[in-house]
Write a structure and sequence with these properties.
The protein is 36% helix and 15% strand. It has twelve helices and 14 strands. It has a single domain, classed as TIM Barrel, CATH 3.20.20.150. A hairpin with a 2-residue loop joins strand 9 and strand 10. The strands form four sheets. Strands 3-2-1-14-11-8-5-4 form an eight-stranded parallel sheet.
């Protein structure tokens, strides 16, 4: 398969940043922002057989209705895969009955692509973590914790901490590989900080064995950082974050290390509280994060694309816990699937039409 034409750094960051500026400080009406990459007339960009949803997106609905009802709804939307963020619900109990949970997956023709587990659980209960993943038939087992959470707070946000974390990750990866699975790391923002001229994420990638450790790029967190997260104070002092960082080039230069993506979107605004570096989460395709642009540089049948929305605080105040929030979470799953399934490839003739 020929590699798809890529958008250059200026277009990837500049065009979306311009959209962000235009949308900043204004209310976001449904459909107000262009859902980029749709209806371009090309072939489908992402195989629907590789679309998934992170179940954290639906956590209130699962807590109220249970896994089976939510799995039934996700299968009706068209999903084939789910990513776990915990295994307990009213219909699985606590501690969870994993045999029953896997039965729900089978009944609705779903599979588990992966699961987020706290990194200290890998350190302290590795066998149990892998036993649970194996019981559910997962292909990947990973963590969304910052790697340096393995160490005391005073030792975090340092190059040395990330080197030691990489050594631990290699061990986790070797244990997962021995069980027929792959270990992966999901980023937030702190991993991309630059300390004494060295980006911490680079340390993690360079010091881990590519045969044992894989990565799930959360595109929202990476892109928000790339366009200007603030400096922070850490045990090593103040530093700037994310200088000269391009999420697309990171992925395009070594795509084999990124089998999984979180397709997450947001809009830059001062409305609503709290914000995330001045951004609010929205459904995939409704915001300013250039998902389509990044995916166009990939062999898209070699990765999985996972819908996630961290919260529904925007637009307006968050709805109370219960059915209104549950409905919003299911609507995100539906709209996220439709957006990703509707993306079209960029052909050679399309390279310059977005100027």
């Amino acid at each position: 398969m020929a590699r798809k034409p890529r958008l250059d750094r200026g277009r990837f960051l500049g065009a979306a940043a311009g959209a962000a500026a235009g949308a900043a400080f204004t209310p976001l009406a449904p459909g107000a922002l262009a859902r980029g990459g749709r209806n371009r007339g090309g072939d489908r960009l992402l195989p629907t057989s590789r679309l998934a949803v992170q179940l954290f997106t639906l956590r209130n609905r699962i807590a109220t209705l249970g896994f089976e009802q939510v799995f039934r709804e996700l299968a009706a939307i068209g999903y084939k895969w789910v990513e776990f963020a915990g295994y307990s619900a009213p219909d699985t109990g606590s501690p969870p009955d994993l045999g029953r949970l896997r039965g729900f997956l089978r009944r609705h023709r779903l599979k588990g692509i992966g699961s987020h587990i706290g990194v200290t659980q890998f350190r302290d209960n590795l066998t149990q973590v892998l036993d649970d993943a194996e019981a559910l038939g997962l292909r990947y087992i990973g963590t969304a914790s910052e790697p340096d959470q393995l160490f005391p707070a005073a030792e975090r946000q340092t190059v040395d901490a990330y080197r030691r974390a990489a050594e631990a990750y290699n061990a986790f990866g070797a244990a997962a590989k021995a069980r027929g699975m792959r270990f992966y790391h999901h980023n937030h923002s702190s991993e991309f900080a630059v300390v004494n001229g060295t980006r911490l994420y680079d340390v993690l990638m360079e010091e881990t064995d590519p045969r044992l450790v894989f990565f799930q790029l959360d595109i929202f967190w990476a892109y928000v950082g790339a366009t200007g997260a603030p400096a922070v104070t850490t045990p090593t002092g103040s530093k700037s974050w994310f200088p000269n960082f391009d999420p697309a080039e990171l992925v395009w230069s070594q795509p084999e290390r990124f089998p999984l993506f979180h397709a997450k979107d947001g809009v830059r605004t001062d409305l609503g509280a709290p914000t995330t570096f001045g951004w609010q989460f929205v459904d995939p395709g409704d915001g300013n994060v250039p998902l389509w642009e990044l995916f166009n540089g990939l062999e898209t049948d070699e990765h999985y694309y996972i819908v996630e929305r961290d919260n529904h605080n925007f637009p307006g105040p968050a709805p109370p816990a219960g059915e209104p929030r549950n409905n919003a979470q299911l609507e995100t799953a539906r709209r996220g699937f439709e957006y990703l399934a509707g993306l079209r490839q960029q052909g050679e003739a399309d390279d310059d039409h977005d100027d």
